[in-house]
Design brief:
125 residues; single chain; two-stranded antiparallel sheet; ADH-like_N; 5-stranded antiparallel beta sheet; Quinone Oxidoreductase, Chain A, domain 1; nucleotide binding; 34% strand
């Protein structure tokens, strides 16, 4: 799949990545819309700024990270403990910040407890 990585600069890089795996309490979503937030470019900047209070905290993202955390799309897979969602459900969700599987990609990962159904009359946007 295609995935966008946020880098210091700020800049981005489009890369090829495997579709992410999910755990027993997560859902895999085919992304239709991804929201963007100021932290998406700020976190990589803080990660490389040695004067920042966040320099050590964000060390693992210095080489870039998929910062997309706001997802709208269609469920393609559910973990074995997930009972409230099924393949084909229209959903919106919050991706765990700074974790792999963000929404700046074709597929994203979300915890079931941060995911909700989108009614048919509500657009993905």
């Amino acid at each position: 799949m295609k995935e966008i990585i946020n880098l210091p600069g700020p800049s981005t890089k489009l890369i090829d990545s495997p579709i992410p795996d999910i755990n027993d309490d997560q859902v895999l979503i085919k992304v239709v819309v991804s929201g963007s937030n100021p932290k998406d470019w700020k976190v990589p900047e803080l990660a490389v700024n040695q004067d920042s209070a966040f320099f050590q905290r964000y060390a693992r993202v210095r080489q870039g990270v998929n910062q997309g955390d706001d997802i709208a799309g269609v469920v393609v897979k559910t973990g074995k403990n997930v009972v409230e969602f099924k393949e084909g459900d229209r959903v919106a969700a919050f991706h765990e910040m700074l974790a792999p599987g963000g929404s700046y990609a074709e597929y994203a990962v979300a915890w079931a407890h941060t995911t909700f159904h989108l009614p048919a009359e509500v657009s993905f946007e």
